[in-house]
Amino acid sequence: MKKNIGIFTVTTVIAALSLIANMLIYQVPELKAASQNFIYSLPLVYLFFFVFTIVILGVLLTLGKKKKEQVGYIFLFLTSAKMGLSYLIARPILTKTIDDPTEKINFFIVFILFLAIEAYYTARLLNNK
């Protein structure tokens, strides 16, 4: 139980520190103007991916105790669902007519950050079998 709480705590700390760092980066005058035109605010993007990551990790930890041999498949299914929803949310960003790719790059970097967190903990779960 303490190990599971530690996973969620570390994930929360990483998400919070990443959000703060990202927001500080967008305080640079050249990037500040670009962030003004974002469709989704930085905290909203981080919240979306953070909630998904917490749900995925929670499901993996819960089902990993009962069905250890299915953890990899569950991870693939949940990550695919997250990817599909991420695409639906990113569609306005992808179809945006402004030539500045800053929001697109930021969205996918945040996606990859949280995907890396999920993959790391899934690998640890699979190695603990």
Write a compact overview of the structure shown:
The protein has 129 residues and is mainly alpha-helical. The chain has helices at residues 2-25, 29-36, 42-66, 71-94, 102-127. It has one domain (2-127).
Overview of the structural elements:
Keywords: Membrane, Transmembrane, Transmembrane helix. This is DUF4293 family protein. It holds the Pfam family DUF6168. It comes from Flavobacterium arcticum. The structure is a single chain. With 129 residues, the protein is mostly helical. It has one domain (2-127). It has helices spanning 2-25, 29-36, 42-66, 71-94, 102-127. Helix 3 (42-66) runs antiparallel to helix 4 and helix 4 packs antiparallel against helix 5 (102-127). The longest helix is centred in the last third of the chain and has 26 residues, at 102-127. The protein is elongated and about 50 Å long.
Radius of gyration equals 16 Å
| Largest sheet data | none
Round the mean pLDDT to the nearest integer and report it: 89
Structurally, the number of domains stands at: 1
Task: Give the overall shape.
Answer: elongated
Low-confidence stretches: none
- Report the structural category: mainly alpha
| Individual helix count | 5
Number of strands: 0
Fraction of residues in helix: over 70%
What would the keywords be for this entry?
129 residues; mainly alpha; 5 helices; elongated
Summarize the SSE layout with pairings.
Blueprint: H1 2-25, H2 29-36, H3 42-66, H4 71-94, H5 102-127
Helix pairs in contact: 1-3, 3-4, 3-5, 4-5
